[in-house]
Amino acid sequence: MTPTPSRAVALYGTEEQVPPPRLLTAGPLSAELEAGNLRDIRFAGAEVLRAVSYIVRDKDWGTYSPILDALKVQQEPDRFVVTYRARVAEPGQAFAYEARIEGRADGTLTFTGSGAAETPFLTNRTGFVILHPIAGVAGGPVTLTHVDGRQVEGRFPDLIDPVQPMMNLRALEHVSPEGHRVHCLMEGDTFEMEDQRNWTDASYKTYVRPLALPWPYELEPGARLEQKITLRITGAAGAATRAEGVTLDLGREAGRMPALGMGLDPGDAAAALTCADPLRALGPAHLLCHHDPRRGHDRASLQAQLDVAQALGAEPWLEAVIAATDDAGAEAEVTALGATVAGLGAPFATVLLSPAPDLKCTLPGSVWPEAPDAAALAQVARRAFPGARLGGGMFSYFTELNRKRPPVDALDLVSFTTSAMVHAGDDRSVMESLEALPAIARSAAEIARPLPFAVGPSAMGMRANPYGAAPKDNPDNIRQAMNFNDPRQRGLLGAAWTLGALAQFATGGAEAVALGAPVGAFGAVHVPTRFPQPWYDDHGGLYPLFHPLRGLARRRGQPLRRVDSSDPARVLGLAVGAPGETEIWLANLTADPVRLHLPQGARQMACLSAAEFAEAAEDPGFLDRLAPVPDAGISLDAYSVLRLLGAF
Fold it and tell me: What are the residues facing 353 on neighbouring strands?
């Protein structure tokens, strides 16, 4: 037993080692090779595509991790070539493929995939996926070439498109923010695009096999899939450079600090009461009490959650799933629930309802399942919960809210949740998800207009899986997409992501934001669980994200200002408080130290980094320990959180 955790556990909550990507270069063209796929494709230092990947997905939209064989990398000054074989398998089915990647200094990049099923193979998607960046691209022009050869002019969506903004694609061409012309040819099948910002991915995704076709579908043994992506980049724009440090300035006013809350599962209520003292110190404004009769929830489980809310000093909100799928059954169920709540003293000032069918995804082109009429359900709820503020929207993700709009005329509030790892679970993708949140906030505000919108309970991990049977339990404590228990919730990366998400939604106009839970897989305080929690299982204590949540929860309703970062992909934050007594909260979103150039007026600071991890786990007021800002300036370590006070 050691008094301090390893750096890996402090940063990521796990000892899992992740091989670094291999940099491929061909003159001004570069890309990172990671698990056989390409990421961060650049020309003259500027990003032109976020990724090109050959993926195989299962019937629940989970992505297989391929086993690579015979990997060869040929690297020359003006050319690189990568070849490998790969195989994915699970009991009863297997698929194998070969890949060839070639990059040239003239800006040409090709990626060929050729594969066949070894057995009848059930899949929702097998083939290429291309990710286009959103920064400097959203709302911009693009030339589309359809599969029949027709060319049309279009635009990348600005507000988030609920379905497919571009279909029947053979090629796309656009100009990058740095002036490079990017032409992407996609051969071997019909491609279409979806706006991945729906799921907080910072990309538009062009993918193989239209969603209007049946899924899952079966690949016959021996039938070959042949696909090829060809990227051509032209233009004589100058090389992009990254500044040595990050400059931060106070931006425009952004309303008021929203109420910060948490979500609670009834199964965690008893454990949360054992941590009432630190959770009361955290000070959540509200606690979403979950109720789902399909899981056996009843009056007793509601009372248990109300006990937690009272112990924490938080306003209880009701988040109730309605199991009945017809109007008459839903009316009876809501009426009965209203009577139960009245018997508890009508403690819920805000009531959110969702029909159970809306907890699952309905893909574009699919038939919506039978569900109670949303407007009629709201009318019933008005009678069942007199005096309560009534919310609607989705307990699942913004995607589902965007595709099935709520009846705002019948509601007082619109809500939704998010997760950072629907499609990918690596550290970089999780942090990139923060780039998409401003677009989600703008789009949600447009959907909710004239009502306010609330976010959460949200976290990096998935509390539910609208796209399959369930999230991944993750007993091995690894990074992966669709995790229920994600180790980084307990590391500094989790604190940095939480602060970044809060900054984006707060300055984006959310009235309330609920991030995480008191305890458990999305918790702020350790309790024993069925999944491993390295270091904490021996020492207990507070997770790093406890501290930014505590610091900003007590600022509810105070003036809010944006923090303008010269590199928001590296450092993100917000400022809160009256002029002259403002505090700034900042997070390093990367695994590398970052030198900060602060706005004038910074006087005192407190920092939570890996060096202070163990001490912060024991002290709820750790970031109240202020020290003078050093004359030499500040270098913020990996995934660190910084609190600054001053006369800004």
Answer: 320
Residues of the chain with pLDDT > 70, as a percent, come to 99
- Residue 242 contacts residue 571 (beta carbons within 8 Å): no
Confidence check: pLDDT of 324 > 90: yes
**Cβ-proximal residues to 128 (8 Å cutoff; 6+ apart), any chain:** 52, 53, 54, 55, 111, 113, 186, 188, 191, 207, 208, 227, 229
pLDDT band at 238 (very low <50, low <70, confident <90, very high): low
Tell the burial category of 194 from Cβ atoms under 10 Å away from its Cβ (0-12, 13-18, 19+).
Answer: buried
Smallest CA-to-CA distance from 437 within 510, 374, 373, 543 is with 510
Compute the distance between CA of residue 302 and CA of residue 188 in angstroms, rounded to an integer.
Answer: 54
Distance CA 635, CA 630 (A): 10
Beta bridge partners of 175: 181
Dihedral sign for Cα 201, 207, 213, 219, please: negative
Give Dmax (Cα) for the chain: 75
224-234 vs 181-187, strand pairing mode: antiparallel
Q: Half-sphere exposure (CA, 13 Å, Cβ side) for 421?
A: 29
Q: CA-to-CA distance for 231 and 14, rounded, in angstroms?
A: 37
Compute the chain's Rg from CA coordinates: 25
Minimal CA–CA distance to 399: which of 618, 161, 565, 130?
161
Secondary structure, 3-state, 75-112: EECCEEEEEEEEEEEECCEEEEEEEEEEEECCCEEEEE
Residue 339 has pLDDT above 80, yes or no: yes
Structure tokens at 209: 């096999």
Residue 88 backbone dihedrals phi, psi, to 5 degrees: -125, 145
H or E element that contains 192? strand 191-195
Q: % helix / strand / coil in the chain, to the nearest 5?
A: 25, 40, 40
CA distance 74 to 321: 55
pTM above 0.85, yes or no: yes
Lowest mean pLDDT, pick from 358-362, 414-418, 448-452, 458-462: 358-362
Q: Which phi and psi angles does 548 have, rounded to 5°?
A: -65, -35
Backbone angles phi, psi at 312, to 5 degrees: -90, -10
Residues 6+ apart with CB under 8 A from 370: 325, 326, 357
pLDDT surpassing 80 at residue 326: yes
pLDDT tens digits, 587-626:
999 999 999 999 988 999 999 999 999 999 999 999 999 9
Q: Are 88 and 54 in contact (CB under 8 A)?
A: no
**pLDDT tens-digit series, residues 149-206:** 999 999 999 999 999 999 999 999 999 999 999 999 999 999 999 999 999 999 999 9
Q: Are 589 and 570 in contact (CB under 8 A)?
A: yes
What's CA 205's distance to the chain center, in Å? 15
Token reading at 5: 């955790």
Q: What are phi and psi of 609, to 5 degrees?
A: -130, 180
Amino acid at 118: E
Q: Of 26, 32, 66, give the one whose Cα is nearest residue 47.
A: 32
pLDDT at residue 60 is higher than 90: no
Residues in the chain: 648
Helix (H) and strand (E) counts for the chain? 12, 35
Lookup: tokens for 411? 């509601």
Comparing 33 with 647, the larger pLDDT belongs to: 33
